[in-house]
Amino acid sequence: MNNQLIERVAAGDVTAVARAISKVEEGGPGASDLMKQIFRRTGRALIVGITGAPGAGKSSLVDKLAACYRKRGERVGIVAVDPSSPFSGGAILGDRIRMQTLSLDKGVFIRSMATRGQLGGLARATVDAVAILDAAGYEKILVETVGVGQDEIEIAKTADVCVVVLVPGMGDDVQTMKAGIMEIGDVLVINKADRDGVLRTEKELEGLLSLAVRTDPWRPPIVKTVAIENRGIEELAEAIDRARESQQSAPASNERRQAIARWRILELLRERLLSEALHSDSTSEKLDRLAADVANKKRDPYSAVEELITK
User: Fold this and answer.
1) pLDDT tens by residue, 15-43
2) Which among 139, 141, 77, 137 has a CA at the least distance from the CA of 108?
């Protein structure tokens, strides 16, 4: 069954791509074997992570960038990640809006990824979805995250090029970003650049860039855009291309690939160990008992975990 599905994915069959993503997202039987076969067919696409604070206009930016790539004749995959919206809103609502413009284009595939209430696994499922799109022949894959939480940062770190989006007047957001997201940003975008305060935001970003610690010589460019008017989109696409070229010529590029591979292995290991531990009937019963003890202050959660591990 998997072999037939994989061949259809490799042929670019949209229905097969959707089915394969659903399979790995649910993590059911056969998902691991499917990804083993998919992985060897990956490595051709350019994966662009697009992250930033809510309200920065990332969805509009992604749509215009996708249209730009389509003009080049490239197929585009869009993966919208929203950890906070298991059933409605967020990325799913964004899909409906996009359906009006992009769904008619057979060269664009759009998929939402949400937690759906499971314990972890969102970042892993997203990376697997990207791999499936890569295997299906999409040359550009845009991964849009809703915010700048830990899940989103982890996902952005696995992209070939990470784009951080801000808008003028977000001084506080710029400051809170400097700890982690600024150091993984390969291209910085000031969207809605027709607003007041764009020069101040640009200076704040330049100041943060001078303090950021990077493992490569690349200095992230600052691109100003007005996505809803399609302004600055070509410049953004060119900046992404330059960032990718710089990575491929830098000695640190192999270190980046190894860091991503290490993260993927650890993420799978963490998920597999947790799944195996929780699927035991005895563990489930013990977990219920320990949870009751911790809730009633009869035991602390740290010793509860130790008891589960040493069962």
Assistant:
1) 999 999 999 888 777 889 999 999 999 99
2) 77
